[in-house]
Design a protein that fits this description.
The chain is an alpha+beta fold. About 20% of the residues lie in helices and about 30% in strands. The relative contact order is 0.29.
Length: about 80
Amino acid sequence: MANGATIKVLYFAQVAELTQRREEDWPLDQPVRGADWLAALVRRYPQLAPAGRLKLAVNQYHVAPDTLISPGDEVAVFEPVTGG
C-alpha cells in the first residue's frame, strides 16, 4: 500500500474467539465491497468459513454485503444473533 491507508476491524463473540483477536488494523488503499472483503477475511482466517454467514457493521451501522468499505472505516464482524 503506497498510502498506508487502513481500516480498523473489530471482532465480536464467536468471531473473536475463532480469530483470537478483538481488533486489528487491515491495510486498505481503495474501497472494496463488503462481500469481497469478507472473502479476504476468510482466506486469512479459514476457521470463519463460510463468509456468507458473517455480518458486517461499517462505522457502527449494519450494512449489506454489497456496501463499500473505504480506507479509514471501522468494520465490525459478527455472527447473526438469534433471540428466544
